[in-house]
Amino acid sequence: GAVVSQHPSRVICKSGTSVKIECRSLDFQATTMFWYRQFPKQSLMLMATSNEGSKATYEQGVEKDKFLINHASLTLSTLTVTSAHPEDSSFYICSAGPGPRLVYEQYFGPGTRLTVT
Amino acid sequence: GEDVEQSLFLSVREGDSSVINCTYTDSSSTYLYWYKQEPGAGLQLLTYIFSNMDMKQDQRLTVLLNKKDKHLSLRIADTQTGDSAIYFCAETTPQGGKLIFGQGTELSVKP
Question: A43 to chain B nearest CA, in Å?
Fold first, then answer.
């Protein structure tokens, strides 16, 4: 149980285009979903926290107009990178919580590798 | 503020025990976690410990928590080559379940 999926797993796009990444909790309802960004050999940086049906809370330094987050249902959140640039190339990971067993447990998706050319 | 620190690399021989250390600063942490990340993959929750516990054992994994020193460790017994990965410790607080991650420790297991 407690499986989180992400789609796509890899995406290559041209500079200036927008890319949407989906995060789904497959077998539990996630009231909160988190979006992280990870650069090579580095830790995860929390970008934003989204609660179902309300606006996302962005971390300091993260542009909310560039990284649009929608959490329309208890099983789906989307991250749209608008007008992508090469510096947006990164590994994006979502997590969903609380998990079914533990109130503060988060389950992570497998990640999406974004490459902007 | 919140800060979590780990050493960056650890190399062990197959069959030995591995000990990965982590320090944190937030005394209000409620849960502390260990996650494993294999190359190109997401994070897998290995184990967690509640802040009022000193130790937790789960098969080959032993977590020790020294709350006074704000020190957390993960011991992997009989380390195997399949254990090679990056290990992240993380803490969360009562405020909102936000996870604060350490930098990750890259564990290399040599045959």
Answer: 5
Which one, of A63, A46, A47, A64, lies nearest residue A55 by Cα? A64
- Nearest by CB to A108, which of B40, B42, B97? B42
Among candidate residues B7, B4, B2, the one with its CA nearest the CA of residue B86:
B7
Give the pLDDT confidence score for residue A101 in this predicted structure: 62
Give the largest CA-CA distance in chain A. Answer: 42
Q: How far is B97 from chain A (nearest CA, A)?
A: 6
CA distance B10 to chain A (A): 14
**Euclidean distance between CA atoms B77 and B79, whole angstroms:** 5
Residue of higher predicted confidence among B22 and A100: B22
Check residue B8 and report its DSSP letter. S
**Category of B30 on φ-ψ map: left (φ > 0), alpha (ψ -120 to 50) or beta:** alpha
Tally the C-alpha atoms within 13 A of residue A84's C-alpha that lie toward its C-beta.
21
Rounded-to-integer distance, Cα A81 and Cα B48, Å = 33
Structure tokens at A61: 């330094």
Contact across the interface for A108 and B45, Cβ inside 8 Å: yes
Is B35 close to A108, i.e. CB distance below 8 A?
yes
Q: pLDDT, tens digit, for every residue of A29-43?
A: 888 899 999 988 788
Give me B36's structure tokens.
């494993």
